[in-house]
TrEMBL record:
Family: Belongs to the multicopper oxidase family.
Record organism: Phascolomyces articulosus
Position of the signal peptide: 1-30
Span of domain Plastocyanin-like: 48-163, 206-354, 468-608
Entry-linked Pfam families: Cu-oxidase (PF00394), Cu-oxidase_2 (PF07731), Cu-oxidase_3 (PF07732)
Stated name of the protein: Cupredoxin
Keywords, ordered alphabetically: Copper, Metal-binding, Oxidoreductase, Signal
Record GO terms (molecular function): copper ion binding; oxidoreductase activity
Length: 624
């Protein structure tokens, strides 16, 4: 087994200060918006740089967006149109891609940013355009590369506001909104309202906590290990970063004059802040808490929920939360924030996960750039604790208790039109490489990419035979021709996703939880259970009384049985209901990057003949 030390107790300073910190990263290149036209033009330049975000003794080459890490936030208002230009520099050396995680891409499947499925990777020296509207969406999202392990550094927040008036106030020194490098300078607007709003919620300001992980090795070496014959098990990160920073081995490195310390979240006392928490990690779920503070959850994956009080969050790769934080502690003090990895094999700790929140009166500071505040130690030394991260996790955590603020319009007790059962299994192949097989199938590699293949067909259609055989319980509904799961708009389909045993050595294994992400559509977790799903027994089971719309949900691991471990044996399951609605070819995968690269993914093909880009191509061909 290959191991590295865990990231643990990642301190953040929570300092109460009137820093309009969420304002975007300042660069000499600014992008602002035209409110009337509802078009936002954004340029993302991918370049090769180096990083040492945890005060280690070595830097590593990484790809960066506009030379920054984390990448500059993208912000928009509901229903805006975005015209994004991705420029992969000649010097980057690697092909790349950009996916907008959680953005449904309604009518714009070609802009989803998934190599091998909706596009080819963008070679060095090339430019790729992604135009789409954020139709009906608000909330907290992010964007990241969907190529290899590049999502370790090519990633940044993506925030959508309900109205233009709900944007946080811009820095008085900026006067423009900085999203990315662009030559389009268009007058921006400023929110002068004393409060910000979304749905029923009101708050004074907002901050981002962007969770990522970091390895003391290159992305290429991680990729070679994961896909090569020497693979044993995915190793844990050396550090967990919040807003791009932490301190590795703080007893040695914290007082190094070249070490800037931990991220600091500056807030003003006596206020209510919306913390937008983004799980952009590639491996672990993160537990998160703040000393002497509690949270009110108000959003999950872009869906507003009724207020739910908690002392901590469990944030898996790809998941996002918004919580309300009352800054009701003593001013001029700072408080430790702790994050710890969950669902992990290893128990060693690097004890480097501290961050700090600071309560500072507004007159004491200037307004900083986003992701910039940092500090070495909290003035209040209390380190908050999290629930045991090595104990078996409760099925569903708090999610079964959450309720949407929207009225329930679906009957979740009703049976689906059909059920698709997925049983992934980790398998060592004849060449000693390790891949994930879903229902016994090796991951497919389309060449050229799938959407391009469909474009070349005279009249691409959905495989209705595969759908019918699945309805009759004769197959799992897979289309062996397109290598997809065909779905028809208007169907109600339940997906049962198993977690299965992974073998460490003969007779010894572990059951891992997996965060599953749907592109192009939301899903609703409606039930979960231990070991293997049995449709006759479990089809009417509902463990989520009030399902909420999600785009990333965990298939939780179940308890181990007292018997020799068998690789691929089911140890837990989660059922996700999908109301099929968005024509396209959409990725459906585990958001642990190494697992996805090893094949823990599939593609949902929705109403092929209704995919807008294919319809347009068909019209052009018929008119020639």
């Amino acid at each position: 087994m290959s191991t590295t030390t865990l990231c643990k107790h990642h301190h953040i300073l929570l300092r109460l200060v009137s820093l309009l910190w969420f304002l975007l990263i300042a660069t000499s290149n600014a992008l602002t918006v035209v409110q009337a036209s509802r078009i936002r033009k954004i340029e993302l330049d991918i370049t090769l740089g180096t990083m040492n975000p945890d005060c280690y003794n070595q830097t590593y080459p990484v790809l960066l967006v506009n030379g920054q890490h984390p990448a500059p936030p993208i912000r928009a208002t509901k229903d805006d149109e975005l015209q994004i230009t991705v420029r992969n520099s000649v010097g980057s050396k690697y092909s790349t891609s950009i996916h907008y995680h959680g953005i449904l891409q309604i009518g714009t499947n070609e802009a989803d940013g998934m190599p091998n499925v909706t596009q080819a990777s963008i070679p060095p020296g090339s430019v790729y355009h992604q135009n789409f509207r954020v139709v009906g969406q608000t909330g907290t999202y992010y964007y990241h590369s969907h190529t290899d392990y590049q999502d370790s550094s090519v990633h940044g927040p993506f925030i959508i506001y309900e109205t233009d008036q709900d944007w946080p106030t811009l820095s008085e020194d900026e006067g423009v909104e900085v999203i990315a490098m662009t030559t389009n300078i268009i007058p921006s607007y400023r929110n002068n309202n004393p409060k910000l709003h979304e749905g029923p919620y009101e708050y004074d300001d907002e901050r981002i906590l962007f969770f990522t992980d970091w390895w003391h090795q290159t992305d290429q070496s991680r990729l070679d290990f994961a896909l090569g014959p020497e693979f044993t098990v995915l190793s844990e990160a050396d550090s967990c970063l919040v807003n791009g920073r932490t301190v590795y081995n703080p007893s040695k490195n914290l007082d190094n004059p070249n070490c800037e310390g931990y991220s600091a979240i500056d807030v003003e006392p006596g206020k209510v802040y919306r913390l937008r928490v983004i799980g952009a990690t590639t491996m672990p779920a993160m537990g998160f808490t703040i000393a002497r503070h509690s949270f009110t959850i108000i959003e999950v994956d872009g869906e507003l929920v009724q207020p739910f009080q908690t002392k901590f969050l469990e944030v898996s790769p790809g998941q996002r939360f918004s919580v309300l934080l009352k800054t009701d502690q003593v001013p001029n003090e700072s408080y430790n924030i702790a994050i710890e990895p969950y669902f992990t094999l290893f128990e060693e700790s690097n004890d480097n996960n501290a961050q700090i929140t600071s309560h500072i009166p507004k007159d004491n500071v200037n307004k900083p750039e986003i992701f910039e505040p940092h500090a070495r130690r909290a003035t209040i030394p209390d380190m908050p604790t999290l629930p045991d991260t090595t104990a078996p996790q409760k099925q569903g955590w708090i999610f079964p208790k959450l309720k949407s603020v929207k009225p329930i319009t679906h009957d979740f007790r009703a049976p689906p039109d059909r059920t698709i059962i997925l049983t992934p299994a980790e398998k060592q192949l004849e060449d000693n490489t390790t891949r994930w097989l879903i229902n016994g199938r090796i991951p497919h590699d389309w060449n050229p990419y799938l959407l391009s293949i469909l474009e070349t067909m005279d009249h691409p259609t959905l495989n209705e035979t595969a759908i019918q055989l699945n309805k009759e319980g004769l197959t799992d509904g897979f289309d062996e021709g397109h290598k997809t799961y065909p779905l028809r708009v208007g169907e109600v389909v339940d997906f049962v996703i198993h977690s299965t045993l992974q073998i460490v050595k003969p007779g010894q294994g572990f059951c891992a939880s997996h965060p599953w992400h749907t592109h192009g559509m939301v899903h609703y977790p409606i039930a979960d259970g231990y070991w293997q799903y049995d449709d006759a027994r479990d089809k009417n089971l509902r463990t989520y009384p009030n399902p909420i719309a999600r785009d990333t949900s965990i298939s939780y691991a179940g308890p181990s049985k007292n018997e020799p471990a068998v690789g691929g044996a089911p140890c837990g399951w989660t059922k996700l209901r999908v109301f099929v609605s968005n024509p396209g070819v959409w990725g459906f995968h585990c958001h642990i990057t190494g697992h996805m690269l090893q094949g823990l993914m599939t593609v949902l093909e929705v109403s092929t003949e209704q995919i807008p880009v294919l319809q347009h191509r068909q019209v052009v061909q018929e008119n020639q």
